[in-house]
Amino acid sequence: MSPFKGQTGLKRIFNATGYSLDGLRAAFQGEAAFRQLVLLNLVLIPLSFVVEVSRGERALLIAVCLLALIVELFNSAVEAAIDRISLERHPLSKNAKDMGSAAQLMTLGLIAAVWSVILLG
């Protein structure tokens, strides 16, 4: 067992919630891309309740928006880990960061595609 693994039960859930909130706070404060995606979500999610779509379509419109936030959290985590290892330029570090960025680009494309297909029929 890892010495970094802590409590179990409710104490673990309480601690994990705190760590998660710390991560959201760090992303919001330190990552402009995350703040931009939060703003996009603040526009698109309420908009999904205004347009006439089925409940399933609305859920999909919201899900792809939230997915972009999740992917950005992973992308930011990869970048932070790479920078923690070394600030030296290295091809593997560049690849890791570029792949994280590509994942986010794909997610934004997914948002555009899903919203277009649902709204334009």
From TrEMBL:
UniProt-listed InterPro entries: DAGK, DAGK_prok, DAGK_sf
GO molecular function terms noted in the UniProt entry: ATP binding; ATP-dependent diacylglycerol kinase activity; metal ion binding
Co-factor(s): Mg(2+)
Active site: 72
Top-level taxon of the source organism: Bacteria
Gene3D superfamilies: 1.10.287.3610
GO biological process, one term: phosphatidic acid biosynthetic process
One GO CC term on file: plasma membrane
Residues bound to substrate: 12, 58, 72, 101
Pfam families: DAGK_prokar
Keyword Cytoplasm (UniProt): no
Cofactor note: Mn(2+), Zn(2+), Cd(2+) and Co(2+) support activity to lesser extents.
Primary localisation category: membrane
Bilayer-spanning residue ranges: 33-53, 60-82, 102-120
Alphabetical keyword list: ATP-binding, Cell inner membrane, Cell membrane, Kinase, Lipid biosynthesis, Lipid metabolism, Magnesium, Membrane, Metal-binding, Nucleotide-binding, Phospholipid biosynthesis, Phospholipid metabolism, Transferase, Transmembrane, Transmembrane helix
Protein's name according to its UniProt entry: Diacylglycerol kinase
Lineage: Bacteria, Pseudomonadati, Pseudomonadota, Gammaproteobacteria, Pseudomonadales
